């Protein structure tokens, strides 16, 4: 047995916890280990927050999401989250209609300690409760120090998932996809 779902969400901050709760509910129902569920839900939250912040040009949006002359036609004001759980892994994809990732993204040194990861998780929760205005930061920098206020989301996804891919759909936006091998609670519905 497997579970697959796809959500089409507005690029609004309120969509991030909605996607996270949907994933957590799915994994709870299926019987996924809570630690794995937490890691995937944080990674999903980071990918969704990235799509909300960088996933399109909001300058042409009217009060009710009307198409403005300044907005590129590819920007629907939405992004898509797709998740697939099977007996071995969970694969998640977040796709937006923004400008995409820069041609090359330099990786940050992997000198994170367990203490630093706990601090980053606590800061993530704080950011979720008190989000910064959309568009407050530039798209992506090639290198952002660990002490920076933004830009850590992609690195956090890389740390929490087993396999991560950052890509572009030509003329249609960015795609972040990641997966993680699942652990199950005893008596889980989807256990191998």
Topology:
Blueprint lengths: L2 E8 L4 H16 L3 H21 L23 E8 L3 E7 L18 H16 L23 H8 L2 E7 L3 E9 L11
Antiparallel strand pairs: 1-2, 2-3, 3-5, 4-5
Explain this structure.
- The structure is a single chain.
- The chain has 192 residues and is α+β, with helices and mostly antiparallel strands.
- The termini are close together.
- The radius of gyration is 17 Å and the shape is elongated.
- A hairpin with a 3-residue loop joins strand 2 and strand 3.
- The chain has a 5-stranded antiparallel sheet, with helices on one face.
- It has helices at 15-30, 34-54, 114-129, 153-160, and strands spanning 3-10, 78-85, 89-95, 163-169, 173-181.
- Residues 58-74, 105-120 and 132-148 have low confidence and may be disordered.
- It is 32% helix and 20% strand.
- The protein contains 4 helices and 5 strands.
The beta-strand count equals: 5
Distance between the termini: 9 Å
Share of residues in helices: 25-40%
The assigned structural class equals alpha+beta
Mean pLDDT: 75
Q: What is the element string, with H for helices and E for strands?
A: EHHEEHHEE
| Cross-sheet strand order for the largest sheet | 1-2-3-5-4
Note poorly predicted spans: 58-74, 105-120, 132-148
Per the principal axes of the C-alpha atoms, what is the gross shape?
elongated
The biggest sheet, with number of strands, parallel, antiparallel or mixed sense and barrel status, is: 5 strands, antiparallel
Q: Helical segment tally?
A: 4
Q: State Rg.
A: 17 Å
Q: What share of residues are in beta strands?
A: 15-25%
Quaternary structure: single chain
